[in-house]
Amino acid sequence: MELRVGAIEKFSTIDYPDKISCAIFLKGCNFFCGFCYNKQLVCKELLESTPDLPLKDIQDFLDKRVGLIDAVVISGGEPTIYGDSLISFIKDIRSKGYLIKLDTNGSNPEILEKLISQKLIDYVAMDLKDSFENYSKYTLIPIENIKKSVNIIKNSKIDHEFRVTTHPELSLENFNILLNYVSEQKVFVQDFVNNNTIKTYADDSKTIYSQLSKEDKRYILR
Question: Rounded to a whole number, what is the distance in angstroms from the first to the last CA of the chain?
Answer without folding.
Answer: 35
